[in-house]
Amino acid sequence: MKHKNTIIFGIALVAIFGAIFGTRAWQESQPGQYDEFAQHLKDSGAVFYGASWCPHCAEQKALFGNSYKLLPYKECSVGATAASGQTQECKDAGITGYPTWRFADGSELSGQQSLEVLAEKTGYQLNGATTGSTRLKEGAEGDPNMIGGDASYGSEEEIASTTVIIE
After folding, report:
1. Which CATH superfamily is domain 35-165 in?
2. Which InterPro entries does the record match to this protein (predicted)?
């Protein structure tokens, strides 16, 4: 009887993990709400420079939901921390903070940007979708790009726009 209960428990556990990971894999395989916009950014010549360890880069990607996979993203980190260094491509591009958006006209925006700002910068119409507007909040010293500034992001509609500076 004890052996039978162990087998049943094992099967139930496998089924639960299968459902969890299967659902996640299915969700990630679905088209994103901003696929067309992400592709437009790429086609317009925009480049999003970031680092895997950068929380603001992760937040920037999260604004795009599943569409983040289509972003013109360049990974600048060669390791799991800022101390690990930067790729030669990002050094050559003069990237000094993350996230950094560079556009075909040579202009640049530092820090997390709202979808509206990116759309305006690249001439894209967002069709009135909810896009997670950004209102810039300042750090403790009044510098919105300062590391260690106030990390409170406000309501869900207010996403902090900050940059991680590389030294």
Report:
1. Glutaredoxin (3.40.30.10)
2. Thioredoxin-like_sf (IPR036249)
Please name the helix (run of DSSP H) or strand (run of DSSP E) that holds residue 3, with its range, or none. helix 2-29
Tokens of 102: 């560079």
Which residues are CB-contacts of 22 (< 8 A; sequence separation ≥ 6)? none
Residue 62 has pLDDT above 80, yes or no: yes
Contacts of 73 (CB under 8 A, 6+ apart): 48, 49, 50, 61
Give the residue extent of every domain in the chain: 1-30, 35-165
Q: Which residue has the tokens 């972003």?
A: 71
* pLDDT value at residue 77: 96
Q: Against a cut of 0.85, is the pTM above it? A: no
My answer on whether omega of the bond before 99 falls inside 30° of 0, hence cis, is yes
For the residues of 77-103, what is the DSSP string, one character each?
BSSSSGGG-B-HHHHHTT--EESEEE-
SS3 labels along 52-69? CCCHHHHHHHHHCHHHHH
Cα dihedral sign for 116, 39, 108, 166?
positive
What's the pLDDT tens digit per position in 6-56?
777 767 666 665 556 555 555 556 779 999 999 999 999 999 999 999 999
Nearest C-alpha neighbor of 122 from the set 39, 40, 19: 40
